[in-house]
Design goal:
The chain is of the alpha/beta class. It is built from seven helices and six strands; from the N terminus they run E-H-H-E-H-E-H-E-H-H-E-E-H. Helix 1 (32-38) packs across helix 2 (43-64), helix 2 (43-64) packs parallel to helix 3 (83-106) and helix 3 (83-106) packs parallel to helix 4. The structure holds farnesyl diphosphate.
Amino acid sequence: MPAAQKPFSCNVDVTTPAANLPRHVAIIMDGNGRWANQRGLPRLEGHRAGAESVRAIVRACGELGIGYLTLYAFSSENWSRPKAEVSALMHLLEFYLQREVAELDKSNVRLAAIGRIHELPESAQRQLQKGIEALRKNNGLTLVLALSYGGRAEIVDAVRSIARDVKTGALDIADINEDSISQRLYTRDIPDPDLLVRTSGEMRVSNFLLWQVSYAEIHVTDTLWPDFRKPQLLAAIDDYSKRQRRFGGVAPNEA
Ligand code: FPP
């Protein structure tokens, strides 16, 4: 069956009406270290359990019919962690990609990556490229991995690209607008997130999708990322579905 006709199966017990589903969910996956600490385990065990949550949430988002899921898997700032932890996270990423691509393909998931991908170890870059290539033709959920990602760095890269185009005459200063900036972000082909979820109770954006979350609804849960599974995702979506989005205007019933 061609990819475009792959069946959409929804066997999740959804109480949320489809019309209120966020098109794009972005998640700051936090709390792996604390989860491990609470169990007297090394931090790596928290990241391993976190990778299982990634698996469960990707599957659930696909089943729900969500269009885009962006996961903050490794920030620009995470490079300052102990070398052994950085290396373990990179190995975990490679292991996840090796193990999951076939399953992601079966679920019609497409893969994308945002961030300064060239800063990742070459083996991780290769694995990522292989996964993106293998899943390119799918048209279900787009899983976006934010890797070596920083929102400020992304804006710096966009400004550099604009400056280059102005210098060569390809872009007129008068034509610089929100759209031309959006088109130079790593997320150029991806709609802005509707729902931003942060686990482990921290009330911070942590340099994640700074430009793109301007009008996102924010859901913060105390649940640590390794404990965040389908029921917690449904709770976040339920919370989102009750919000009245005004995008800076007034609600229709107040106009
Ligand atoms: C934050 O927890 C989490 C990370 C820095 C990395 C996220 C990585 C994963 C979920 C695992 C692998 C990912 C993929 C895509 C396979 P933390 O270590 O900052 O937790 P803490 O604040 O409790 O210390």
